[in-house]
Write a structure and sequence with these properties.
The chain is an alpha/beta fold. It contains 27 helices and 17 strands. Helices cover about 45% and strands about 15% of the residues. The structure holds adenosine-5'-diphosphate and zinc ion (ZN).
Amino acid sequence: MSIHEILKTTFGYNSFRGEQEEIINTVISGTDALVIMPTGGGKSLCFQIPALVNKGLTIVVSPLIALMNDQVAALKQLDIKAATLHSNIDQGQTNQIYQDIAQGKIKLLYVSPEKLLSEGFIKYLKTQPVSLFAIDEAHCVSVWGNDFRPEYVRLSKLKEEFPTIPIIALTATADTATQSDIIKQLKIDGCKKFLASFERKNIKTASKSGQKRLQQIEAFLNGQEDNCGIIYCLSRKSTEKIARSLVERGYKAEAYHAGLDPTTRRRVQEDFQNDSTKIVCATIAFGMGIDKPNIRWVIHYNMPKNIEGYYQEIGRGGRDGEPAEALLFYSWGDYLNLKKFIDEGDANQTFKEVQSAKLERMWQFATAMSCRTNLVLNYFGEYRNNECGHCDNCVDPPKLFDGTTYTQMALSGVLRAGQKVGVNLLIDILRGSYKQEIKMSGYDQLKTFGVGRDVPFVHWRHYITQMINQGLIAIDFTDYSRLKSTPLSMGILKEGTKVNLAKYVAPEDKKKVVIAKREVDLSDMDNNLLDKLKKWRSKTAKTQSVPAFVIMHDKTLKQIATLKPDTKNDLLAVDGIGKAKLEKYGEDVMEIVSGNS
Ligand code: ADP
Ligand code: ZN
C-alpha cells in the first residue's frame, strides 16, 4: 500500500498535514531526520506510517509511560500491531510480547529509554529485524532543553550500536541550541531537518487585565458549554479555591496539584481524560503526561513567569486541530509576585537576570498592543511581522488616541509626589481621592490633585501600564515598586512630545475572535445527535478501559453529527474513521444516527 492509502484506509485521514509526507518519505528512504513540530502538529504519523511500510520492527522511545500506553491503545483501535515494554509491564506480558515479536506480530514497540539501553536488550535487538528508531520528546537528551533526562543521554549509543538503522528524532521544543545538541548527542549529523512553524493557527489567543477574574471566567465559560479546559494557577491554594467556586456555580471542576495524594491525582487525571470532569484547576505540573486531544480552552488565572511556559501550556489546547481558546489574565500583582520570587530565590545573579528578562518579555506579551502571535514567534526566533488573525489584537486592534495630556498629568503627579508613590496611589491622587493616606501625606495639596478625575480608575491603570511599557515612566522594584521618571519623561513634560495610547475597552465590549472552521462546515451540526454519540463513546471507552478520545475524537463525532451519513460506508468520509474503526463501531454509530430522526 502507498503511504496515501495507509493514511486513508488505516488512519482515516484524507491528506497529509504540513511536511508529514516529506518526513515520512525521508525516513522510509533510510535517512535520519530531526522533526521540530509544535504540539498537535502530527508528529506520531511521521514514524507510525514508516513503521507500517517498512519490513520489520520500529522501536519508539518515549519518556512517559502514560503517553506510551495511550499511543498503543490508540494504535490497537486501528488494528495496528503495537506493544509497550516498560517497568510497569509484568513478566507474563513481557514474555507474550517477545513471543509476538518472534512471530512477526508486532510492528511498533514502545520502550522507555531505560529499557532500551538495559543490558541484554540491545543484544536482543541485534537479532531482530529493526527497521527504524523513533525518539519522541528528543529534547530530553539535551541539557539545553527544558526537560533534560539523564536516562536519555545514553541514547547516543544507538547510532554506534546500529549504524545502518535510521533514527527519527521528534520534539516540540524550539530553540536552536537544543536542536544542534540533539543532533550531536544522537550522532545524526547527516540528518534532514524539518522545522515546522510554531504558530498554532487554531488557538485564539487573548490577554485581559485581571480584574474580577472569576466573573470574567464565568462569562467565558458561558460560551463553552460542555467543552473541557484547564485553568492554570500559581499556587496550590488557589487551584482549590477556584475549583470550589466553580463547583458552587454548578461546573464539574476539580483541583490538581503536587500536594494531593497520588490516588486522587490519578483519579482527577483519568476523569479529565475520559471527559467526566470538564474543568481542572491546576498548577503547571498538570498536563505534561496527558495527551488529550480535545482540550478546548486554557485559562491562565495568573500570568506565567515566561513565554516558554505560557506557550507550552496553551499548546495543550486544540491538539486535534479543532479551534481552541487561550485566555491570559495579568495584573501588576502577578508581576510583582513573580519578580519577588526571582529576587528572593537563592539562584546566582546571572540566573536571576535571565529570569527577570524573561519575566519582562512575558509582561510585554500580556500588555502588548500588536499581534501576540508575532511576539511569541519572534521570541522563539521565527521572525515575521504579518498579522496572525487569531489573536485579540489582530481581530480588534486597539484604537489609538493622542494621550500626551494624560501622560503629562501622570508624569507630573509622579514628580510632584517626590517619586514616592506606586500606581494605585498615583491614580488616587490624579482622581482626587480623599483617602486617609492621601490627606496624611499632604498629596491633596499637590497641583495635580484631582486633574484626572474624569477618567475612571481602571482606565488610568490601562494608560499608565502603557506609559510604563513605552518607557515613559519606570517602576522601581528596589524601592517598593514606586514610580519614577525616565530619560524619556522630560521630552513629554517640557517639549510636549506626542504620545499615542490605546483606548480602554471594557472586557465585555471586546470583539470575539472567530476561527474559520476547517474542512467540514459544522454550522448544521445536530447537537442532540452529538450528545448521543458522546454518551455512546463514554460507555464504549469505559467498557474497554481506554480514554474516550482513543475510541473517536470530538472532531470525528462532530462531523458525524453534521453529515449524518445514510450508510455505514459513508462513514469513511469522516476524518478519523478508517477500515478498522468502521468495522468496530460502524454499526453502533449508524444505529444512533438513524435512530435520531
Ligand atoms: P503531536 O505528537 O505532534 O503533538 P499527534 O501526532 O498526537 O501530534 O497528532 C495530533 C492530532 O492530529 C492527532 O489527533 C492526530 O490523529 C491528528 N492528525 C495527525 N495527522 C493528521 C492528518 N494528516 N490529518 C488529520 N489529522 C491528523
Ligand atoms: Zn495576531
